[in-house]
């Protein structure tokens, strides 16, 4: 049985504005699930509903088989880490971490044991007597984590905990969090708007946009088989190339030029979008679709060549050793097995026979 | 903050409103009593509303003592005092925050210390000083002796500290005098603090009693609280003229209530914006 | 960097504004202290230096100790309820949304009224026979004390009026401080299992402690200077039960014209105020969290 089950969850304010709709998700014990999406997509709101900080308008939330809709946050046995860390400014690190235990009337000696253990785990021992204002961002983050860990719950909810850290620290903390997750064997739901974070940390990614789930899957699944154009362009940096293939005129020939056997797809009604990632493209001198180079990004280990193909922008990832020039006329070749077809109007993925 | 559920919210609302009503009850009672007859007020049974509103009580009160004059005196002195206070306090607050001179910190500490002093401790000598200046029993004397307001200096100082240094330095680099910087840059940026300070000071000076009662003894110079108390004492406690006393009290309370209702936002805002709690 | 100020600037910005302060505060203060060592009676221009006689006279006067006791009682009986109730009301008010402004306006209204005027109203409300308070109490079958004429009750009447006037003021300050606490703190304490009591004790109270300290100082200093309501309600009586040190000063200076003793009382009030300030600094180190 999944440890967390959300069925048909809907959230609206004042019966007018609906921010989450038709949310269905099952989370298994021990999974590291990432809620990913742009600002305002509803990921934090959903997390807060699971935590009990926001009321659920309709639908059911089950944790460990029990319906939680009407159970207050303090009785849900979950731990939460906030984006702003929410450390108590007037308490020391020790007191911050131990507060949840103190409030549940745990014996002082036991508190001391647990807090010291957690502090060691997170390298916070030298800071136990400091107040939050004397800590760095990373240290505060770890205190927030410590506070969650010390409670020995099975479920961790994290609301963009790394967003306030600088890039380098963020990368370090990502690793630490995943290692902690494994060590503790907890189930974690992690909210972020950063797709790199989601890809590197999650077992399962739930992509949201406009309050609706766009896709649920493992990082590789989502990367290789995006369910719609939103997901396709959200994941991956640089974004997936999306080329419009219209029914009549040059469109089809573009597809024909790019893909040898695309007959089955081109027979579809409606206009299509061809999605292909930069790393699945190659530049040829003579074979493929004509392309004029407009811009080159040299990043050391990678090279991204921007160009125009039949009036549409394309980015190609090439080996750094190859030399190109702006204005140069070349040809584009793509890997047919890596193409994602989308219906241009609905944005949905067109599933081929073998998918 | 966890939102209270519906019943809790209603209960809370009721309790707090009940308390709110209790807080304004004396004022409401005052107004109702001013419209009653003496028998209704002093009678053995308590009646809530007057049977027949005695608006004549107000003109009656005005005949017995020139309350409107008193109100004018209060308005005039309070307004003048506030204006001068703002002027002087702005100068001082500017000096304390933007100018460098020896003893600046000491000066601030001294000013802070005067806040702790009971004003009454200064009354005896101040009384002599006023009479030596030949300002006894004059509104001018009242005004002159009330020009200090440490709270205003605090509020303004708090605010001036928040003005970005670059603005001042740029103005100085342009050759602007300190006087111009104060009045053309700093003061316009501190409008809220100035309004808040004036409201607080105005209320205090309008309602002032002890000091004015000591240095004014002709009726024409009474401030409203002084005039009212004299009237109250002269009528004997709860004699026949009680409703008139209530009418007179309403007159004394009314101007401020009016201002309060009109400027509510500013009154409440007085507390919130930079009230200098850190002291 | 501020450039060193010129003499003209110092005159305009510092010395001129300081004139009222010096003339009507500093000089009178020094004169008051000096006068406390004389026996001046205001009527005759001559007087003698009497050293500490005035102070000794006070210390051996029962009325003085009574006033001292009344002052302390009055201070505690007003400041503590004002802080307590102001805080509670602010906490309650914080949970309202749409109706917050109306209730706030009602609760703050007493503060802007003139104390003299409202004390006149209260003096009638406290009237033992016909005042609404006793009528209300009588209606509920409760005892109806002689508020203003019983020397045990009078001080409480004055306390009630003072608390009534100032609760709104304290409540607004607390309300403002509460609104500045980030809501995430409440949410996280919620998730951690804190009850409402825990929240108040471990979060609200510590985080509003700077406001509490500020209000404590201001309210106590105010209570030391309370005059208007005593003048109207009880004039220091009955039997000196509502005579505070300040009222004693007023009586000595402007009724008995015993300037020496009056100024000695004033100096003592000054010393108490100063001690209060120091005391507040000390406890702020331990109990106030910035």
Summarize the structure.
Chain A is of the alpha+beta class and 355 residues long.
Textual characterization of the structure:
The complex is a heterotrimer of chains A (355), B (279) and C (290). Chain A has 355 residues and is of the alpha+beta class. Chain A has two domains: 4-233, Rossmann fold, CATH 3.40.50; 240-343, Nucleic acid-binding proteins (OB fold (Dihydrolipoamide Acetyltransferase, E2P), Beta Barrel). Chain A is 28% helix and 31% strand. Chain A is built from ten helices and 18 strands. The model of chain A has no long low-confidence stretch (mean pLDDT 88). In chain B, helix 4 crosses helix 8. Chain B has helices spanning 6-34, 38-42, 56-64, 67-98, 104-116, 123-132, 139-145, 150-161, 165-173, 178-189, 191-206, 210-215, 224-234, 242-262, 264-272. The mean pLDDT of chain B is 85. Chain B is mainly alpha-helical. Chain B has two domains: 6-60, no CATH class; 65-234, MetI-like fold, CATH 1.10.3720.10. Chain C has helices at residues 7-35, 53-59, 62-94, 100-112, 115-125, 132-139, 154-179, 183-191, 196-207, 209-224, 228-233, 245-254, 259-287. The mean pLDDT of chain C is 88. Chain C has one domain (62-287): MetI-like fold. The two termini of chain C are 28 Å apart. By secondary structure, chain C is an all-alpha fold. In chain C, helix 3 packs antiparallel against helix 10 and helix 12 packs antiparallel against helix 13. Chains B and C meet through helix 1, helix 4, helix 5, helix 6 and helix 10 of B and helix 1, helix 3, helix 4, helix 5 and helix 6 of C.
Question: Helices, strands, pairings?
Answer:
The complex is a heterotrimer of chains A (355), B (279) and C (290).
Chain A: E1 4-13, E2 17-27, E3 32-36, H1 43-51, E4 58-63, E5 66-67, E6 78-81, H2 93-103, H3 108-121, H4 137-149, E7 155-159, H5 167-184, E8 187-192, H6 195-201, E9 204-209, E10 212-217, H7 219-224, H8 229-234, E11 241-245, H9 249-258, H10 263-266, E12 272-276, E13 281-284, E14 289-298, E15 303-309, E16 312-318, E17 329-334, E18 340-343
Parallel strand pairs in A: 3-8, 3-9, 6-7, 7-8
Antiparallel strand pairs in A: 1-2, 1-4, 4-5, 9-10, 11-12, 12-18, 13-17, 14-15, 14-17, 15-16
Helix pairs in contact in A: 2-3, 2-4
Chain B: H1 6-34, H2 38-42, H3 56-64, H4 67-98, H5 104-116, H6 123-132, H7 139-145, H8 150-161, H9 165-173, H10 178-189, H11 191-206, H12 210-215, H13 224-234, H14 242-262, H15 264-272
Helix pairs in contact in B: 1-14, 3-14, 4-7, 4-8, 4-11, 4-13, 8-11, 9-10, 11-15, 13-14
Chain C: H1 7-35, H2 53-59, H3 62-94, H4 100-112, H5 115-125, H6 132-139, H7 154-179, H8 183-191, H9 196-207, H10 209-224, H11 228-233, H12 245-254, H13 259-287
């Amino acid at each position: 049985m999944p440890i967390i089950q959300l069925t048909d969850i809907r959230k609206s304010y004042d019966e007018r504005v609906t921010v989450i709709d038709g949310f269905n998700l099952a989370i298994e014990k021990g999974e590291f699930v990432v809620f990913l999406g742009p600002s305002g997509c509803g990921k934090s709101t959903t997390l807060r509903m699971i935590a009990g900080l926001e009321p659920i308008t309709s639908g059911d939330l089950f944790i460990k088989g029990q319906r939680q809709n009407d159970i207050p946050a303090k009785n849900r046995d979950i731990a939460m880490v906030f984006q702003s860390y929410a450390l108590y400014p007037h308490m020391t690190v020790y007191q911050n971490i131990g507060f949840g235990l103190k409030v549940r009337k745990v014996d002082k000696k036991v508190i001391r044991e647990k807090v010291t253990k957690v502090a060691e785990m997170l390298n916070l021992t030298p800071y136990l007597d400091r107040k939050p204002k004397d800590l760095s961002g990373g240290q505060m983050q770890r205190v927030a984590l410590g506070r969650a860990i010390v409670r020995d719950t099975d479920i961790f909810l994290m609301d963009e905990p790394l967003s306030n850290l600088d890039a380098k620290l963020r990368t370090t903390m990502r690793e630490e969090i995943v290692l902690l997750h494994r060590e503790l064997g907890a189930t974690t739901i992690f909210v972020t708007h950063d797709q790199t974070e989601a890809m590197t940390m999650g077992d399962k990614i739930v992509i949201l946009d406009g309050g609706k789930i766009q896709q649920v899957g493992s990082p590789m699944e989502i990367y290789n088989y995006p369910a719609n154009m939103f997901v396709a362009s959200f994941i991956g940096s640089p974004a997936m190339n999306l080329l419009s293939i219209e029914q009549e005129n040059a469109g089809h020939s573009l597809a024909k030029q790019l893909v040898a056997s695309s007959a089955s797809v081109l027979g579809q009604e409606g206009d299509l979008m061809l999605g292909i990632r930069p790393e699945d493209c190659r530049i040829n001198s003579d074979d493929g679709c004509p392309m004029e180079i407009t811009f080159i990004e040299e990043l050391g280990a990678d090279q991204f060549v921007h160009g125009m193909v039949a009036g549409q922008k394309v980015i190609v990832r090439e080996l750094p050793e190859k030399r190109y020039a702006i204005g140069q006329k070349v040809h584009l070749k793509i890997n047919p097995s890596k193409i994602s077809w989308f219906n241009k109007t609905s944005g949905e993925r067109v599933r081929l026979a073998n998918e | 903050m966890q939102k209270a559920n519906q019943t809790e919210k209603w209960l809370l609302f009721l309790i707090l409103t009940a308390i709110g009503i209790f807080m304004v009850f004396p004022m409401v009672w005052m107004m109702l009593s001013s419209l009653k007859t003496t028998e209704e007020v002093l009678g053995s049974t308590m009646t809530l509303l007057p049977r027949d509103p005695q608006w004549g009580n107000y003109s009656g009160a005005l005949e017995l003592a020139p309350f409107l004059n008193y109100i004018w005196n209060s308005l005039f002195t309070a307004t003048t005092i506030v204006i001068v206070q703002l002027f002087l306090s702005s100068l001082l607050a500017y000096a304390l925050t933007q100018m460098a001179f020896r003893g600046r910190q000491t000066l601030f500490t001294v000013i802070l210390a005067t806040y702790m002093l009971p004003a009454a401790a200064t009354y005896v000598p101040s009384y002599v000083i006023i009479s030596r200046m030949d300002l006894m029993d004059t509104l001018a004397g009242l005004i002159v002796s009330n020009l200090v307001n440490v709270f205003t200096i605090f509020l303004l100082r708090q605010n001036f500290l928040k003005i970005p240094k670059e603005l001042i330095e740029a103005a100085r680099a342009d050759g602007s005098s300190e006087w111009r910087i104060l009045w053309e840059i700093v003061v316009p940026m501190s409008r809220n603090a100035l309004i808040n300070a004036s409201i607080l000071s105005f209320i205090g000076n309008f309602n002032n009693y002890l000091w004015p009662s000591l240095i004014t003894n002709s009726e024409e110079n009474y401030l409203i609280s002084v005039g009212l108390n004299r009237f109250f004492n002269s009528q004997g406690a709860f004699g026949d003229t009680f409703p008139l006393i209530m009418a007179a009290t309403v007159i004394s309370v009314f101007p401020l209530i009016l201002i309060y209702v009109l400027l509510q936002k500013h009154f409440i805002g007085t507390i919130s914006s930079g009230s200098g709690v850190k002291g | 960097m501020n450039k060193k100020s010129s003499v003209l600037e110092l005159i305009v910005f510092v010395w001129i504004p300081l004139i009222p302060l010096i003339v009507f505060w500093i000089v009178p203060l020094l004169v008051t202290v000096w006068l406390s060592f004389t026996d001046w009676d205001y009527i005759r221009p001559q007087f003698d230096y009497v050293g500490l006689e005035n102070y000794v006279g006070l210390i051996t006067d029962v009325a003085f100790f009574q006033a001292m006791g009344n002052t302390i009682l009055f201070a505690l009986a007003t400041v503590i309820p004002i802080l307590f109730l102001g805080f509670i009301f602010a906490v309650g008010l914080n949970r309202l949304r749409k109706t917050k402004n109306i209730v706030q306006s009602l609760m703050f209204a007493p503060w802007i009224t003139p104390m003299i005027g409202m004390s006149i109203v209260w003096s009638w409300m406290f009237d033992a026979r016909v005042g609404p308070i006793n009528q209300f109490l009588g209606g509920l079958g409760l005892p109806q004390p002689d508020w203003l004429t019983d020397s045990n009750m009078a001080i409480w009447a004055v306390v009630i009026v003072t608390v009534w006037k100032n609760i709104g003021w304290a409540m607004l300050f607390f309300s403002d401080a509460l609104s500045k606490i980030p809501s995430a703190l409440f949410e996280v304490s919620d998730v951690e299992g804190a009850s409402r009591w825990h929240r108040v004790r471990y979060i609200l109270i510590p985080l509003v402690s700077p406001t509490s300290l500020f209000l404590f100082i201001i309210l106590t200093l105010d209570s030391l200077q309370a005059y208007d309501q005593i003048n109207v309600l009880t004039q220091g009586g009955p039997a000196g039960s509502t005579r505070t040190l300040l009222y004693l000063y007023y009586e000595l200076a402007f009724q008995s014209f015993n300037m020496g003793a009056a100024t000695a009382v004033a100096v003592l009030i000054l010393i108490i105020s100063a001690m209060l300030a120091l005391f507040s600094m000390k406890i702020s180190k331990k109990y106030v969290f910035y």
